[in-house]
Amino acid sequence: MARFTILTPAGASFTTSGGGYAYEMEALEGLDAEIVECPPTEEGFIAAAPSADAVYAKGMKFTKRMIDALTKCKIIALGTVGVDYVDVAAATAKGIPVTNCPDTFIEEVADHAMMLLLATHRRAIEQDRMVREGRWSEGRPQLLSVPRLMGLTLGFIGFGRVARAVAKRAAPFGLQMIAYDPFVEELTLSDLGVRPGALSEVLAQSDFVSMHLPDTPLTRGFLKEKHFRQMKPTAIFINTGRGPTVDEAALIRALEEKWIAGAGLDVFEVEPPKPDNPLLAMPHVILSPHNASASSRFDPARKRRVGQELALVLSGRWPMSCVNPTVLPGSGLQRWQPYAMTRGPNS
C-alpha cells in the first residue's frame, strides 16, 4: 500500500494551539498516511509541496504559487466553513478538490445570530451598563421606546444552512420572515415560514437584516451605502457570515448618521478590528470576536471531518463537501455512492 504524506503548516490554527492530530487520524487509521508539518510560510510550504499527497490547510493563506507547487496532491482539506483563504480557482485548474466543513457548526452560528438579534433589540449591553454604572432609572425609559418583538420582520440576505436554522429559532418569537436568495427554491423558504423577496424588499421591509453570504469574489462588498440607505431608520443589522461581504465604511456611516438604529456583528472587514475602528465605541452595537461557531464540540467535530475528507479522497472516492465550482477533469475520483444516492456532493 502506498504511503500518503499529508502536508500542513506547523503551529496552531485559528482556535486552540497544540493537541496533535489524533482526531484527524481516526478516519485515516486504515490508510498508511501521516500528517507532516512544514514551516508556516509561503516559501516553506513551496519547498515541501512536491512531497504532498494531500494538504491540510490551516493557519495561513494558500496562494496560487503554493498550489502550483503541488505536483501530486489529491485534496486540499479545510477545517472551516469559509474557503476564502485558499485560492480555489488555482486548485481547480490543477484538478485538486478543495473541501470544507459546511454543516458542522450550523447550530452554534444560528444560536449566536439569534442571540445578537435579541440582545440588540432589547439593548442588553446598554442595560447592563446602566445597572453597573448606577443609572438604574434610565433602563425602563429606554425600553419603552422599543417595539414588541412579536410581529416584527426578520430579513435574510442569503438563505443557506445557517439562515434556515435561524428561521427555525425565530418563528416561535412571532417574527415575520422574508429572504433574498436567487439560488434557493421558493418551496424551501415557504416550508420554514419565510417568503421570498427582492433585495430591495428585504432591505425596506425588515426590522432586522441578517447577513449570511459567503466571502467570494462575487459577494465581496455586496452591501454598500445605497443598500443601508434603503433600510428602516429603526432597523438592526446582524452579520454572522463574513465581514468582507459588507462595505464596513458604509455600515459605520449608516450607524453614525442614523440611517439604521444598531448592529450585532461577529465578523469584520479586517480582523481583529483596529483600535480606532468607530464600531468599537458605538453604544448600540454589540460585537463578538468571530466566534459564533465556537463550542466545546468545535475542534473535535471539524478535525474529524477533515480526517474523513482526507480518507475519502486518498482512497479514491469523492469527498462529502467539494467546493470547486466545476467538475474536476482527470482527478480519477469516484463519487461516494452512499451520498450520491440522496444528494449532490455540494449539498
UniProtKB/TrEMBL annotation:
Gene Ontology molecular function, alphabetical: glyoxylate reductase (NADPH) activity; hydroxypyruvate reductase [NAD(P)H] activity; NAD binding; transcription corepressor activity
Domain D-isomer specific 2-hydroxyacid dehydrogenase NAD-binding: 114-292
Assigned keywords, A-Z: NAD, Oxidoreductase
Pfam family, one: 2-Hacid_dh_C
Annotated Gene Ontology cellular component terms: cytosol
Annotated family: Belongs to the D-isomer specific 2-hydroxyacid dehydrogenase family.
Stated name of the protein: C-terminal binding protein
Phylogenetic classification of the source organism: Bacteria, Pseudomonadati, Pseudomonadota, Alphaproteobacteria, Acetobacterales
